[in-house]
Description:
Layout: H1 10-15, H2 17-20, H3 35-51, H4 56-94, H5 98-110, H6 112-121, H7 124-146
Amino acid sequence: xxxxxxxxxxxxxxxxxxxxxxxxxxxxxxxxxxxxxxxxxxxxxxxxxxxxxxxxxxxxxxxxxxxxxxxxxxxxxxxxxxxxxxxxxxxxxxxxxxxxxxxxxxxxxxxxxxxxxxxxxxxxxxxxxxxxxxxxxxxxxxxxxxxxxxx
Length: 151
């Protein structure tokens, strides 16, 4: 018999952090990589590593690696969204019917040779530039919300 996972909001996680870090298994479902989210993850990693008596330098490296992986995942999701939008725009140039475009898009995304070819030739620099613009805009937006500017 398995127990249903608890779904907690940020404030509830902060309140129960002492209990959370005592567990042997954690599962976080992140909705965004904000400063608040990073702080919660940092507290969880620090708490767990303190519990097992790890060297603080190892804790820092673990947290840094985790943040790098999460940031790469966010960038990958943004790239995929831009990639899909770009393919769709090019398909509309060839086939104006929305239903046909959706079918073609599904075939392309599910056919690895086509997907690989398009990834190489669909203007990767444009996608990279768009991802960097989105991340810069998001960081600026978060700074304005919290009242802190990056210097």
